[in-house]
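Lab notes, practical 5.
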Amino acid sequence: MARRRLRSSTVVLGGMGVLAAAITSCGSEPDKRCVDRDTREVLPSYECDDDRGSGSGAYYYGGSKSSGKASGGSFDKAAVERGGFGCSGSGGG
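Output from the prediction step:
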């Protein structure tokens, strides 16, 4: 009997962990990197933060970085925002 109770407690605690992870991911922002639009080479963030619009980079959301280049994401932030459990499609904020 004690063994069964321990097993059910483990399931409840594991389920709570999954729920907590889903809730915290609900409002998280996708990763963003400053990259060259043509080559997708990762640039320093100041290349994207220029208020005058003369910076040579653009923010690339999601994806990954390998050998100094970004891939698997998008320049459109809305295209990579993902909602967690119980989040709306707009990012859930």
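Observations recorded by the TA: The mean pLDDT is 73. The beta strands are 32-36, 57-66, 69-74.
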